[in-house]
Amino acid sequence: MATQCCSFELQSELEDARTGHLDLTHGRVPTPAFMPVGTRAAVRCVSSSDLVATGASMVLANTYHLWVRPGHELIRNAGGLHAFMRWDGPILTDSGGYQVFSMRDRLKVTEEGARIRSPEDGNYRMLTPETAIEVQEALGVDVAMAFDECLEWPADRPTTVDSTARTTRWLKRCLAARRHADRTAVFGIVQGGMFADLRRDHADELAQMDLDGYAVGGLSVGEGRENLLDMTSVATERLPRHKVRYLMGVGHPIDIVEAVCRGIDLFDCVLPSRAGRHGQAYTHAGRVNLRNARFKNSTEPIEAGCECPTCTEGYSRGYLRHLQHVGEMLGSRLITLHNLHHYQRLMADLRAAIGAGDGPALERIRARAAVASEMSR
Amino acid sequence: MATQCCSFELQSELEDARTGHLDLTHGRVPTPAFMPVGTRAAVRCVSSSDLVATGASMVLANTYHLWVRPGHELIRNAGGLHAFMRWDGPILTDSGGYQVFSMRDRLKVTEEGARIRSPEDGNYRMLTPETAIEVQEALGVDVAMAFDECLEWPADRPTTVDSTARTTRWLKRCLAARRHADRTAVFGIVQGGMFADLRRDHADELAQMDLDGYAVGGLSVGEGRENLLDMTSVATERLPRHKVRYLMGVGHPIDIVEAVCRGIDLFDCVLPSRAGRHGQAYTHAGRVNLRNARFKNSTEPIEAGCECPTCTEGYSRGYLRHLQHVGEMLGSRLITLHNLHHYQRLMADLRAAIGAGDGPALERIRARAAVASEMSR
User: Fold this and answer.
1) Residue B169 lies in a domain
2) Among all residues of chain B, which has the CA nearest to that of A45?
3) pTM of the predicted model as reported, rounded to 2 decimal places
């Protein structure tokens, strides 16, 4: 049953794309929205006030990592994750399912949950649906993700059938384990691997459960863009129109635009911050590698007319290239700020085009995002 | 001969301590002043607009490092160091003498200059008084330091005599090499090792040259606080009262207060930024190591009432400890901002006490700085 602490109001639709308002305990999120990734209660190099300056309204943190360090009890005692990281807006935590997936050589998954040998301290930990909810409620986040099994790709049909059924059983255990439904919403995750009928059936099954919100999971694991978008469509076609839809871990600017055009409202991805740390900046002429010697003498900003802190303060490509070259972490920070702003600007442009019912504008955004997603030559 | 691009106006004196205005090509610096160290055209983790927020009015960069990467011609073509690093206020560059000293196992010093095998690219480079001035003028800085020989400690008397005489000859070559005396001042450096009479003689010799400003160099090399302050006094007693005096590479808060009380006007030191990167924060109750587990559960700011960005935004010791623990560089940045602000606040307090002729206030600052310089228990 959906809870009071989460409501989604659809505002406008342009074919399958939509704008809306997601209202959560810590405020309103205009959708489509992009959540920067603050795995360990911090987006790399960037503080919460910096995030506000990039235009973010909601951030993502990671249940598994915060459970291990510093521990959810510590954060609860500090007044919750919002107080701990000084972020006043909504926070969503992924449940740990993807981290379990990424550590599959160090874990054993049973019906009970996942037993993990932590790379941080070598200890064994048992992550179950009940633990995942307990930890996320202790963090006091706005949205807790149900604990799911994220399959590796490729996976055969019998494995996918079994895994998807387990994800549903785990979801029910998550819902039963809730103690703070007054403030923490729980989103279910549609799985089903790369089998369209399994995805469809799972979306139908979850739709009938009247959840707070719906995620599409198990994608962006190496399946390629066509699979990613096909599986997204299959799910959104069956999910309730008046509930928020979140595509986990996606993606490049063009993936985001394509998924918005398939009815997705919410995104998270490490790309803008990871690319920034590696000296890559998103521009409307493509992604540029600022470690490249060809920028040595450039006095141009990353992008003319860009309103991010880095471009408005006038830092040049040549200066950023120098900082990368000598290993000054200020360079990573300045490029990360630009990239996060680029993503937020993309979302604002999408909201404006959809809100105005302006199909040609949406096409222009799609074309620009396709260019921005490729490396510039 | 002193040049037009640098003037120092004494405002008030309290015994040997003084306040004043140092007017340079890019603006006015109220003294006593502390310059944060941006070795490679960036203070670690911190942008130029961040520096403004900490209260800095002048920054230091490094001639040798910028000469190697990205090269002074590149920076000249980018419009000079101010445009390159987006810092509008005055910039001073150290001449490279100290870097030569720190690389003494890879160089050969002759009367001509220092031949250095660069650790960055393995190439041999010849740094001479003429090169040092050429590079610094190309950078377009407000103050170029004369190229000097920084002796290792301890050094015997004959070596110190020879080295000090060479520093004077190199200073004269620096002055003769100037092409932009209209915008770049040159400060001479008093050497003389730990021999009071040699220091005194050298200060007298330089005083007669009517330079733009005077630095006390070759200190903070392991000689201990007593030697440091004794050699400082010996120099300032002989330097012209109406010229600015700069103590290079110093130091702990208490060293700064003691040197101000001995007539020094200008400082630089890597301590606040280096300590920040290592998780150490300056407070009036001592330096605290925020990597320490005892701060795990702290919801207190680094220092109550502190007006730095980190404390005013409410980041707690517990959060900063977590960021250090998991290696998030945001932690280093937030502590560095606090430390730089702590130093700038110290300078503002010193200027206020001296300006008001308030000896007891100066004593209180001295007592607090002594505490701030020690590790808190």
Assistant:
1) yes
2) B330
3) 0.97
